[in-house]
Design brief:
Hypothetical Protein Aq_1857, Chain: A, two-stranded antiparallel ribbon, three-stranded mixed beta sheet, alpha+beta, 14% helix
């Protein structure tokens, strides 16, 4: 007998796209990478939630291919730039700023992501507030 497992799927049609802003430093670094790395041709700049702890979510960025349920979100301060987010990340990102840090003295370099709504997601928020849980597709 074959068992089928139900897969929960977020209803992307009910999600308000996040507001994503890139600082000038982040934009310059992103353009530098795209212009000088031929392996990025045809790839999308993705913003994602990579983990969750007591202090809220952790975030990552990188270049990937587009998946069927991904959303393209226009960067608020750039006319022609879009970032890719999955529906889960889109629900929680709210208003988000991507910066680029280059601090050679402290061996710190890379993109940083700041979700201005981060405090809402401290601790085990989903157990207390249903409005902080993504809408699911009825199956």
């Amino acid at each position: 007998m074959t068992q089928t497992r139900s897969v929960n799927k977020i209803d992307a049609d009910l999600i308000v796209p996040p507001k994503v802003t890139l600082t000038d430093r982040a934009m310059q670094q992103l353009m530098l990478m795209i212009e000088n790395d031929f392996t990025l041709a045809g790839k999308y700049f993705r913003l994602l939630i990579s983990g969750k702890g007591c202090e809220g979510f952790t975030y990552s960025v990188g270049f990937t291919d587009r998946k069927d349920d991904d959303m393209l979100v226009k960067v608020t301060n750039e006319q022609d730039l879009e970032v890719l987010v999955d529906p889960f990340a889109a629900f929680y990102l709210g208003e988000t700023v991507i910066d680029y840090v280059l601090d050679i003295e402290n061996n710190n370099e890379g993109f940083t992501v700041t979700n201005l709504d981060q405090k809402k997601y401290f601790g085990k928020f989903w157990r207390k507030r249903e409005d902080l849980v993504p809408p699911m597709v009825n199956q």
